[in-house]
Amino acid sequence: MTKKEPGAASPPVVSVIMGTFKRAGVVGRAIESVLAQDFSEWELLVIGDCTPDNTSEVVASYKDDRIRFYNLPYRIPDTGSSAKNFGIRNCARGRYISYLDDDDRYRPTFLSTMIGYLEKHPEARIAYCRSMYRDRRTGRRLWGNPFQRWMHGYSREKLQRYNFINVNGVVHRKSLLDEVGYWKSGFYFNDYELWLRISRKYDFHYVNKVLVETFVDEPPLLVRMFTKGWQILRHGRRTPLS
To answer: In this structure, is residue 89 part of a structural domain?
Structure first.
């Protein structure tokens, strides 16, 4: 793919959607990881969920026309669905959509690898890659994270049992959501609900490379098992395939 200069008038190839709320102190890490990509035909849409802090000033400080900030006029506690939908429906100009949480980061070859894969495989509507997990406080790599074992290969049956797909590693054709519907706010595990809905019609394509880094609070294993189980019991997956 050809590389274009920042600020080029033509539409970008991919729109990166980043929702944020009160993260002005950390959002720079995520923004800088997009700026560091070896693929330049992107736009980054930072969508504030009615965030009251100075995130707009942080975004503006990068002085790159490919980065735009929008702040929703009121906050909807829906685990980010409204911000993502607003960004995709009202702002995105790319033919591909990717996602990045405001405190995580891409590795420099994420976009070139994922977009390159989808361009070479026109039958693929959506693809995902592997993620490395890091401790949010120390930055050290975490070993034995329960999600890492599952991010090897895709099967619809496996996805029905467990959500092993990290949203930061997903890239899909923008037109896909016109077919299956957009993000829904009625689910606590809203990414899992969307993945299952997509899997009714299409297979996910797997790129077996670590291309994103996700920062998490990593308590001991027994604590993780309890808290994750409590979330499922409290909120329910509510995502069965019919």
So the answer is: yes
CA distance 85 to 209: 28
Q: Is residue 2 part of a domain?
A: no
- What is the token pair recorded at 107? 């590795």
Ranges of H-type helices in the chain: 27-35, 55-60, 81-86, 110-120, 146-150, 156-161, 175-180, 190-199, 221-235
CATH number, domain with residue 182: 3.90.550.10
pLDDT in tens, 60-92: 999 999 999 999 998 877 678 999 999 999 999
Strands ordered across the beta sheet of 126-135: 67-71, 42-48, 14-20, 96-99, 170-173, 126-135, 205-216, 105-106
| E strand or H helix at 172 | strand 170-173
Q: What is the pTM of this model?
A: 0.85
Residue 100 lies in a domain: yes
- Which residues constitute the domain of residue 95? 14-235
Asked if 6 and 40 count as a contact pair (C-beta separation under 8 A), the reply is yes
Is the pLDDT at 231 greater than 70? The verdict is no
Number of domains within the chain? 1
> What is the rounded distance in angstroms from the CA atom of residue 28 to the CA atom of residue 53?
14
Distance in angstroms (rounded) separating the CA atoms of residues 209 and 204:
15
User: Both tokens of residue 80?
Assistant: 């980010």
* Alpha helices (runs of H) in 36-86, residue ranges in sequence order: 55-60, 81-86
Position 1 in a domain: no
Residues 131, 136, 140: CA angle, nearest 5 degrees: 70
